[in-house]
Specification:
This protein is of the alpha/beta class. It has helices at about 5-15, 25-30, 50-55, 70-80, 95-105, 115-120, 120-130, 140-145, 160-165, 180-190, 220-230, 245-255, 270-280, 315-320, 340-350, 355-365, 375-385, 390-415, 420-430, 470-480, and strands at about 35-40, 60-65, 85-90, 110-115, 135-140, 170-175, 195-200, 210-215, 235-240, 260-265, 285-290, 305-310, 330-340. β3, α5 and β4 (about 110-115) form a beta-alpha-beta unit. The longest helix has 27 residues, at about 390-415. One of its GO terms (molecular function) is DNA binding.
Length: about 475
């Protein structure tokens, strides 16, 4: 058994810290003891240390399954900064020569990052089976439940991957998971709930003020976004469900607020996305207008605000996205603007992105007709058919998934409509027993959003392109009084 003294020595010598953040030590001791572990730690609390540090105390490789290229790039950069060279991100961005070299020298890498799709490739799986894997890490493990069924079904193959590579221990990490989602993740990874150590810390981020406000229409929403961005301390992120709207509002803010605004979404080239991300991380950009493609790979400590222009699809998504703010512990704010039609727009997205009963029936009746169709819904159905799922099973699967998504969306609506403390509502949703003392720094339930009292007003600078509206405080106070 590795002693705590050795763990603390590694923490200081390798990472330069003298103390752990809440939850880290408990997770690290569990995985060092060879115990399968499921950890829920709040956003911004250094989950990556929970597998990085054990890498220096365990023989064998640390294999990390990660959902996003940007997240892998961030983790690799962190390890390189610490002087660790034995790091590989096995992604589609690798050129063929580098991929061949990496696979030929696979056993020389200590930390191996890869996506679930990459891990499900037969060649990669065979190479992993040849390693002595000390720890299999599933980072952002909520993606198994959130994306596995209807977006990235390769997540469903992680159970067979785990059985094939036989790691000494498995670590699932996330910041958000209800009891139902926790049970789903454990089942999909093939982890025994009784034998797995479950470490659950509060999801609350007390330094993020929670504000919601209803607007009459899109025109008013645009005006409010401009007014907020003129006043709020920077940097900040604005989330959208629409790529087109992210681009439109970025252009509006460049005109009305500052030229240091850019958009970010999945239709951009990987080079363009990386460039925007790096400019934001290094302070060259002040505001990012983004879809949820911009998120898990962003570990910028001083984000002061997150605005939601569109309604998030669930409280899990909302909590993940506002968790980009205030990682330095300083006061920050999350603002959600919504209009009456936003719920139906999100409900339509849920319906339109899942194969309906008629399409499933047509596909299973004549799969050859769809053999060349490059449509996400058809590709999903092809996956399930190739894995020997019957039409009846697939019909049931997607009907259940549709209901789950609509229930999650209704919980989001209930959060908006509650007259009570919004922070307590979130904690209750996640069965978090933390009791909230509701005050002026908590949320805008029954009180206006006072940016000045929160010390979130930024001074006017030479980079501002428009004069500030002198009535901003009255207008914002009226808007954020529930």
């Amino acid at each position: 058994m590795i002693e705590m003294e050795q763990i603390m020595q590694t923490l200081q010598q390798r990472f330069g810290y003298t103390a752990f953040k809440p939850g880290q030590a408990e997770v690290i001791r569990a995985v060092l003891g060879g115990q399968d572990t499921f950890a829920i730690l709040p956003t911004g609390t250094g989950k990556s240390l929970c597998y990085q540090l054990p890498g220096y105390l365990l023989a064998g490789q640390i294999v990390i399954v990660s959902p996003l290229l940007s997240l892998m790039q961030d983790q690799v950069a962190q390890l390189h900064y610490l002087g660790e060279k034995r790091v590989l991100a096995l992604t589609s961005a690798l050129d063929p020569g580098m991929r061949r070299y990496s696979l030929a020298h696979f056993e020389q890498y200590k930390f191996i990052f890869l996506s679930p799709e990459m891990a499900n490739q037969e060649q990669i799986r065979r190479k992993l089976q040849q390693l002595d894997i000390a720890l299999l890490v599933v980072d952002e493990a909520h993606c198994i439940s959130q994306w596995g069924i209807d977006f990235r079904p390769d997540y469903l193959a992680l159970k067979s991957l785990r059985a094939a590579i036989r790691p000494q221990a498995t670590l699932a990490l996330t910041a958000t998971a209800t009891k139902r989602v926790r049970a789903d993740i454990l089942a999909k990874l093939g982890l025994d709930p009784e034998a797995t150590k479950q470490i659950v810390h509060s999801v609350d981020r007390r330094n993020i003020y929670l504000a919601t406000a209803e607007v009459a229409d899109e025109a008013e929403k645009n005006q409010r976004v401009v007014a907020l961005c003129q006043q709020l301390k920077q940097p900040g992120i604005i989330y959208f469900s629409s790529r087109q709207k992210a681009e439109e509002i970025a252009a509006l803010l460049q005109q009305k607020v500052s030229p240091r605004v850019a958009f970010y979404h999945g239709a951009m080239t990987s080079q363009d996305r990386f460039a925007v991300q790096q400019q934001f991380m290094h302070g060259k950009l002040a505001i990012i207008c983004a879809t949820n493609a911009f998120g898990m790979g962003i570990n910028k400590a001083d984000v002061r605000f997150v605005i939601h222009y569109h309604l998030p699809s669930s409280l899990e998504s909302y909590l993940q996205e506002i968790g980009r703010a205030g990682r330095d512990g300083q006061q920050s704010v999350a603002i959600l603007l919504y209009e009456a039609r936003d719920f139906q727009l999100q409900a339509n997205l849920v319906t339109n992105t899942l194969p309906d009963a008629a399409l499933i029936k047509q596909y299973f009746a004549q799969p050859q007709r769809f053999a060349t169709a490059a449509i996400p819904e058809i590709e999903l159905l092809q996956f399930y058919r190739q894995h020997h799922q019957s039409e009846a099973a697939v019909q049931q699967l997607f009907a259940k998934r549709r209901n789950e998504k609509l229930l999650a969306l209704r919980s989001m609506l209930a959060f908006l409509q509650t007259p009570n403390c919004k922070r307590q509502f979130i904690l209750n949703y996640f069965t978090d027993t933390t009791k909230i003392v509701h005050d002026a720094t908590c949320c805008n339930a029954g009180q206006p959003l006072d940016l000045a009292a929160l010390s979130l007003i930024r001074p006017a600078t030479a980079t501002d392109t428009v004069a500030v509206d002198q009535n901003w405080q009255e207008r914002l106070a009226a808007l954020f009084t529930n």
